Amino acid sequence: MLFCLALGLAVLSAASPTPNAAPPSHTFTDKMAKRIDDLGTELRHDRRSPGLSIAVVEDGRIVYARGFGFGDLEAKRAVDPGTQFYVGGISQQFTAAAILLLQQDGKLKLDDKVTKYVPELTVAPALTIQQLLQQASGLPDYTTAPGVKVDMTRTVKLSDIIAAVDKMTPTAPPGTKFEYNNLNYMIAGLIVERVSGIPLSDYLQQNIFLPLVMNASFYAGDRGISPSHATGYTGSPGHFRRADTWDPAWLFGNGGLVTNVYDLAKWDIGLPLLLRVDAERAMLTPSGVPGEAQYGLGWVIDERGGKRYIWHNGEIAGYLAMNAILPDDNIAVVVLENTDRFASRRVASPEAIAADVLDILVPPAAMHIDNAVLEKAREWLARIADKRIDRTQLTPAFSAYLTDALVARSDFAALGKPQALIPIASSTGDNGDVVYEFFVRFPHDHYHYKLTLAKDGKIDGLVLTP
Prior knowledge:
By secondary structure, the protein is of the alpha+beta class. Helix content is 29%, strand content 21%. The N terminus is likely disordered.
């Protein structure tokens, strides 16, 4: 639920080819810092966010960290880089890392059946831990489970959720379909606890936060969260009000992390030191499972400007977050905000802010693309927004994936009319498919848009991501 609010606009592509990476050719400058300052200041002047914090990592160093606006509007308490925020779905990177650390210690394996550790989950006896972390479990939507009252402000027992889900029918066999489901990481957190013998928050503290000197990072409900952490707000620009606080039980394993931009930057720097090469590779390798995104273990595995791009966003009541890395450029950007999109999409998007910062750091190079391809890209932006699908233009495989129900659930029209479509990259896969990549600017946000064409000219994928 948290992830799909930002990714719900995306329509799947086939697996993207991996381009050849160019060596980094950038150095963070005072001019870049000034442009990021101006970006944050402009967002505050437009009142599109109560407060936000931005950090930049380059070549293993934190080269920029600054806060803008207020962590508490009523008290006029300013945000600084040390201000703590809830980061929602970014928490899943840490739960996945905990599983990988337990595997490094020989205490479990990714291909173990989940029922080995959670025998009460009888609805999916063939489900593996890896499929759970890849968001490819096929588990039913727990928010529709019989007897489960979804009130995020009140506590809930995970055992009750599992018992209710066990009475439902899986949405797909394990490992056959990407489908974002917070229950996957709630169960993964439970596995960490049962294998380690200690609470998830304690395991993260001892094995991740302390080794990486993430001194401001805690789990919801834990001691150590500063009373001056950013207050969460909801509403629309200029009309923000305090958001209801979600109970930590709903955030367990999937959305409970409280941290600041300094600590998330340390996480991006320290991940290769924490995990062995094989474990890091497992985390950052796309599953290849069909669906709305190519997912690793707690990360979306993507491309941006023809380069590898790994990221994850987060959203819970009152908070938005984005953690984005360009591995080939040794650059990471972290954006944290104390508002949500539940009441309005006009609030500042952390995905768009991160994209703007990355554009400052690694300016995209516009390229020429044949006019016929450009027109097809424009045509299909309009078709998805208007829900007018011409299946004669699609490959059989993509047409089968792009069901009428999936199109009906898409919300492209909410973005408004595209204001600019800028081609930035193209690459050819082993199967002959060509992926064309664009920047698309909408009235309040901009997105990356990928159009995949098969050798016969038919569309084999469409992706619109932050």
